[in-house]
Every structure is written in structure tokens, then in C-alpha cells.
Amino acid sequence: QQQVKQSPQSLIVQKGGISIINCAYENTAFDYFPWYQQFPGKGPALLIAIRPDVSEKKEGRFTISFNKSAKQFSLHIMDSQPGDSATYFCAASRDSSASKIIFGSGTRLSIRP
Amino acid sequence: ETGVTQTPRHLVMGMTNKKSLKCEQHLGHNAMYWYKQSAKKPLELMFVYSLEERVENNSVPSRFSPECPNSSHLFLHLHTLQPEDSALYLCASSQSHGDGTEAFFGQGTRLTVV
Questions:
Q1: Measured between beta carbons, which residues in chain B are less than 8 angstroms from residue A42?
Q2: CA-closest candidate to residue A108, choices A39, A56, A48
Q3: Handedness of CA A49, B1, B72, B92 (dihedral sign)
Q4: B69 touches chain A (CB under 8 A)
């Protein structure tokens, strides 16, 4: 039973384009939705996170859109750059606790020059 | 660097071997975690330690044995593993295992069981 479903599994975007990764969750008790970025040979690192009391959060070129009624959230990367090529994981947790984070299966993003 | 260091980076072991993975965090955190990362699967939380006490064990087979001698060090002792245990093992730490805490991950140990 996958509590956080992530799509697509892989994504290729041209440089300068918009990368969009989608996630859906089941448990309405989740109250913290982080996105992690993982480069090859590295561990995941927190990129941006949102709580369900807002519908959007923007940090630089990265934006999370959150739809509480649909139980969906997505990551948008504007003006995608080759340096953004990485695997992205969405996640959700109850009580925003690090020990209760449920991860999606990941999206491998490749930005073509 | 995130302040969480894992050694070794790569490990190949036979099914009858005994080996240990080591994790050290330099962030002054009180909680440490072991995760398993397999290809095309979500990260799986294996163990959680808070103030050197195990607070979670997510149905992990007994061939994986964690040890937390102090709040800065975490080990994962491995014995009689199976080929399906081959994966990237990630250590993480956070200020606490409770509310509002960000997890910082190490670079992982790539384990291959032959």
C-alpha cells in the first residue's frame, strides 16, 4: 500500500522549460509535505516544503502547488537548468515529524541543454 | 556536505559475511535514522534512535542489527544477508524525532550482496 504516489517515474525537459512532478496522498492526517532532491552519489536533501494551510509556496525557481481537497501536490521547476538534473522525491508526514515521513518513489529528472 | 558522514561508501559482501555500516553526525542532533533505498521504490525507514534509544523498528529482519552507542554515532551490523538486501543504505539525523524537524541525510553506503 503506497501512501504517497509520485509521477512520472522519469522526465526529460529542455533547458529553460518547466518541469512538473506530481504527487497524491491518501492519509488526511498528513500535515507536512516536503520535497527532496538527490544527486547521484549523494543523499537526499530537503529542497522545499509546504503545509496544508497554504495553496502555494515559492522559493526561487521552485514552486509547490497544493490542492488539499484533491489530496494532491506538485513541484514546478521554472526555467529548468542542466544542474537541476537529479532525482526528486515528494514526501508527507504526520505531525511534521522526521520519523514519520513517507516518501514517494521518486522522479528522475533530466534537463537537456 | 550535510554533516552526516557514512562509511564505507561501497561494500560488497558474501551472504555468510558479517559487516558493519557506520554513520557519524556532526550537527549536534539527538535523533538518527537508517533508511533503505532500492531502485524505483520509496525510501524505507528501518530504524529510529532518539537520545541513543531505539524508538522505532519497522519490521526489519533480524539480520540487520542497529547500534547507537552515543547520539553522534550509529551503526548497522549486517550478517547472513540475502541478494535482495542489495541497496543504498542511508543514514539521517534530525534535531529530534518529533515535530518540525528536518532530516539531514548522509551520502549512503552502496551495498551489494553476492
A1: 107-108
A2: A39
A3: positive
A4: no
CA pair distance B110, B41, nearest whole angstrom: 15
Tell which of A97, A100, A102, A107 to mutate to test the B interface (max B CBs under 10 Å): A97
CB A6 within 8 A of CB A107: yes
DSSP string over A70-89: TTEEEEEESS--GGG-EEEE
The three-point CA angle B72-A45-B83 to 5° equals 75
d(Cα B78, Cα B95) in Å, to the nearest integer?
27
- Given a contact cutoff of 8 angstroms between Cβ atoms, the answer to whether A18 and A80 are in contact is yes
Q: Which pLDDT does position A47 carry in this prediction?
A: 95
For residue A96, which residues of chain B lie inside 8 Å, CB to CB? 99-101
Q: What is the pLDDT of residue B18?
A: 95
Residue A86: all three cell numbers together: 537529479
State the Cα–Cα distance between residues A22 and A76, nearest whole angstrom.
9
A46 near B CB under 8 A: yes
Model confidence band, residue B13 (pLDDT cutoffs 50, 70, 90): very high
> How far is A111 from B15, CA to CA, in rounded Å?
39
H or E stretch including A12?
strand A10-14
User: What pLDDT digit, counting tens, does each position of B38-49 carry?
Assistant: 987 889 999 999
Residue with cell 524508538: B55
Smallest CA–CA distance from A95 into chain B, residue: B99
